[in-house]
Every structure is written in C-alpha cells, then in structure tokens.
Amino acid sequence: MENNQKFPSKYHTASASEKLAYYDSYTMAHPYMDMAFETLKPIINDCGDSRIIFIVGPTGVGKTKLRLLIEKWIIESSLPLLKTNFGYIPVASIEARLFSGGLFNFKDHLKRCLHSLAEAPELIEHKINYGTSGVYHKPDGQLIIKPSILETELGWALEQALKQRKPKIFFIDEAHHLLAVTSGRKLTDVPEAIKSLANITQVLHGLVGTYDLLTLHDIGDQLSRRSIYVHLPRYNAEFKEDREIWHSVIWNFQCQIPTSEPPDFLSHWEYLYSRSLGCVGILKNWSRNALGEALNENASTVTLKHLEKRALSVGQCRNILKHIKQGEARYAEIEGKIEELYQDLGLRSPPISRQNYRLKSETKSQHIEPKKRKKSVGTRKPRRDSIGRDNAV
C-alpha cells in the first residue's frame, strides 16, 4: 500500500502515550463542520435580539469539537481587548450535568456557571460584585458560594457576573440534559430562565445538544421566537456527495494514524460507516481506541481486527440510528415545510376584500340551522295516562 502518512516524523519513534495524545489532538476540517463554523461566526458577532442559539445534531457528530473551535476563534480575535481589559472573559462554557436518577439540578447548574466566570487568582483586582452576601471571594481569589444560598440569589449573582464579564457567548454543552427536570418544574422552566437571563444581560447563550433540544420548539413559543438554529448533520450514505466526503474523511484519518505502517481504512469504508453512522466524532473516537489496541500489541498498524474489537455493537448502532432518524425528520419538519406555512398564512389563495369576507361570514351564520334542544334526563314526554280497568293491578 502507498505510504501517505501525514503526521510529524518524530512520532515514528514516540511512546504509545505520545502517539495517542497526538491523535487525540488532531482536528480535521470537513464540509459540515466548516459550514456550521462559518454560520456561527457572524451570529456571535451580531445576534440582534435573538440571544439563544440551538446547535443541534446527532450524538457523536462533533458538536463539542465545533464549540471548542468557536471558543478558540473568539479568544484569538479578542486578544487586543484582553490586553487592556483584564476583567473581560471573551467566552465561557459549562456542561449540563445529570445527577443520580438522571435528573438535572438547576441550583447546581447556577453554581457551576458562576465558577466558569470567576477570575483567576492573579486577576484578584478585577473581582465581580455579585450583589449578594452568599457569593464572594476570599483574599486569595477563591470563589465561595454558601451552601444555604437560595436559587434566586444564585440567579442574581450570575446575572451580575455575566454583565461584568461580558462574554461574547456562554455555551451550555449537553444542553438536552436541561430537559430532565425534577418533579414540580415544567419542561420549559430552565430554558425560559436561560432565555430571560440572556435577554437581561444581553449575553448570547449557545445551547449545544442532540435533536432532543428541538422539543422546546413545540412547547416554548417565546423561546422559539428568540432563537436561532444551527444544524451539524451526519454524512448520509443515501447521497452521492456525502459518500464522497466520507471517503475523504476516512482517508484523512488513516493518514494521521501514527504507526510504522499506514492502515487501510478505505478498503473497509462501508464497515466504518455502518458502525459510526456517518458521524465523524464517533469515527474519530473509535479509530483512536483501535489505535490504542494496536499500540498495546506493538502492532505495525491498525487492522480490521483492532477496529472490530472496539466497534459499537449492531444493536447499539440500530438504537442510535433510530433516534438520529427521528431527530433528522423533526429538524426537516421545522425547517422545510415552507409550502404549508404559506398555505396557513393564506399566501396560496387569491386575496379577497375584508368586506366580502364579512358578508360571506354573515351569510354562512344565517344558514346554520338551530340545534334541537335535548330533553333533560329524567323528564317524561307529555302524554295522557290510561285510566280504568285496564290499568288495575
């Protein structure tokens, strides 16, 4: 096989841990990632009144990698301001966490948001005034949040932190976990609170998650109206163009595998597709684990055997694919039913005058026959009762 390895030559003699670290750090640009990245950049620079971005896609498609690329771009573009405003934080992010029982705790979420916006100890001169005694800094810069603090106080403190740090965007990764609310809360309570926080502070919030986030499109009209949707899809083998891109993705990954001999991923592209479902993130993680297997065996390259040992099972793939297809259909429904929208808005019928519409409505109401009154239950029909011998007992 022709040797097209593209990793730095020093990794030919590197240790196994160094080789894995190199492959972990490798980020490959591909069309869908580039499109989402270029879509986000102007929105972050000027979002208008839409201060919530939903970044959605299937599990393992690379949404977190997209977030990290955006964060890197924001920090690099903010370097001049960071040199003059030491209290400025250009971007912040947290991951929405689930607790035991698979439930989301909003109070814990607020605490971790505050920690993500806290300054480093060397910037102690630029402390935040949180406006509550329950949140403060120790002299060494450590952030203290009192255990007894109320949720409303935490919300107020976070509002002050966002106003003073003024990040271009605050990311919440794994944001579909926000929907796992405890009993007593409505499904939209937490997202609506985030929307309100974004509006008050004028800080753009990016909710990164699976297609489950689209649930909020149906039940939160205010949230939906002030939101922007950015889609990071998988590569769909039903389309010729996506297959060609997938071949390119596989080729680039195999060229970056730091082994003495290059692997042959292209010969097994269908297998690689079937167990990664066209999701670049799944493929990257899978090939990384297969590389670990090969290095443990001191093998010269990553083989099909190594890939098979670390692949998702058929059952796992079918289950993930089922949810992906449901999400793709839901996103297509939200974005694609333009003709139904035009029909519902009356744009596909000839317009009529408002006067004719009123006359038509009045004429229709005059021809409606009055409904017959229903007989009350237990009321006898009026009739003459028989008398005389025939009724004797």
Q: What is the CA–CA distance across the termini?
A: 111 Å
Spatial strand sequence of the major β-sheet: 2-7-8-1-9
For the CA atoms, what is the radius of gyration?
A: 30 Å
The number of distinct helices, counting runs of at least 4 residues, comes to: 16
Helical fraction: 40-55%
* Mean pLDDT over all positions: 87
Poorly predicted regions: none
- Major sheet description: 5 strands, parallel
Structural class: alpha/beta
Order of helices and strands: HHEHHEEEHEEHEHEHHEHHHHHHH
Question: Beta fraction of the residues?
Answer: 5-15%
What's the shape? Answer: globular
Number of DSSP E strands = 9
Description of the structure:
- The protein is α/β, with parallel strands linked by helices.
- Helix content is 47%, strand content 9%.
- The strands form three sheets. It has a five-stranded parallel β-sheet with strand order 2-7-8-1-9, sandwiched between helices.
- α7 (189-201) links the parallel β7 (169-173) and β8.
- The longest helix is centred in the C-terminal third of the chain and has 23 residues, at 314-336.
- The termini are far apart.
- 27% of the residues are buried.
